[in-house]
Amino acid sequence: MKLDSKAMRHLTSEDWRVLTAVEMGSKNHEVVPTPLIEKIARLRGGSSGVHKSIATLAKVGLVARVKEARYDGYRLTYGGLDYLALHTHASRRDVYSVGTRIGVGKESDIVVVADHDGTQKVLKIHRLGRISFRTVKANRDYLKNRASGSWMYLSRLAAMKEFAFMKALREEGFPVPEPLAQSRHTIVMTLIDALPLRQISSVPDPASLYADLIGLILRLAKHGLIHGDFNEFNILIKEEPVSDAAGDEVKDEVSRVNLTPIVIDFPQMVSMDHPNAEMYFDRDVNCVKRFFERRFHFVSTQPGPFFDDAKKLVGKNGSKRLDAALEASGFTKKMAKDLDAALREQVAKDVPDEKDVDSSEDEDVDDDDETYISQASDAEQSENGPAQPSEDEPIAVIQPGSEQSPGHASRSSDPAAREMERLSLGNT
Hints:
Elements: H1 13-25, E1 32-33, H2 34-41, H3 46-59, E2 63-65, E3 73-76, H4 78-91, E4 97-104, E5 108-114, E6 120-126, H5 150-171, E7 179-183, E8 186-190, E9 195-196, E10 200-202, H6 206-222, E11 225-226, E12 235-241, E13 257-263, E14 270-271, H7 277-295, H8 307-311, H9 323-328, H10 333-348, H11 376-379, E15 396-397, H12 415-418
Parallel strand pairs: 10-15
Antiparallel strand pairs: 1-3, 2-3, 4-5, 5-6, 6-8, 7-8, 9-12, 11-14, 12-13
Helix pairs in contact: 1-2, 1-3, 5-10, 6-7
Organism: Phialemonium thermophilum
Enzyme class: transferase
Protein name: non-specific serine/threonine protein kinase
């Protein structure tokens, strides 16, 4: 679904209390009884005030009435959860305005936002349950008594896990976006001016970039982690000019641009001690190998790396075990078990293949394939989501000596900035 924040400025404090009451009631009820909403909200206007707010919220799609329900009640929609998260971010001054959607997929939406200073950021909205879990709903063993709120529960867990891992990885110097805030099923992070690897048709030195990516896989293993979805959709390539010792930009045609990989999307990250760790590790390595052979016609002369060798690197030279940092953040073993069980079936069959890419919103291969791209084609996307390039038509060619890759816009000319809706989220 598309995030539309226009109605936020018109909601009253009573409306927010009622919306929060529906969220609280959703923990134990798929359809929250109206009397329970009244009891939790405790409005001065009593029942009439609650019904007035419910009508307002239902009109803009934040709550919905379920047809043929056994009692009078309402359920919280994804739009309602989006508004509650945005309201929290606005109250913390992390988000002031909402711009265009620049990425869409099965499990998340990516939106450009800005703070009170006008600094652009990225809002990632997890939407587990929209597509991936339609086939899992019949098997709810992993949710036990939480089946009624599964989509909210799982989306919140995915956001909590990703935020915790991004924070831990960032502190250890990994090339990941900086996580700034997390509320419910959303994460606010820095905007990275980069292209996803899958949109790049050629690079000056494939061997060097390949070595950097394999090095990242081994570096993660050294800290006890496996990405679990390390592929061209979740790797961004940032172009940085090379400078000499004096700080002057190098003019050599071969080495003017340094390609820095940025890793994104961490809800499926697992420990090196995971029962299926070897399968996840080998899949990450093979995804990189297959892509480089298919796209850049590059095949490494060295075999591996192999899981058994990577296992020996865990904790080496005093490396901090980041898999333990997740539980320390408040993400309990029970939460990890629930999320892992939900992701297991989908992850097993989501080995990316560019031929599977579809331009429709519901069938997009990955949620982050266009997460941090600031370019015209993203800002001018249709209502059905961003158009996807085919295998035969990758967007960018990175060549030494070029100032920028085709279609790679600078921050100042970002169409998303020009189209930013200055919606004051704090005036509620």
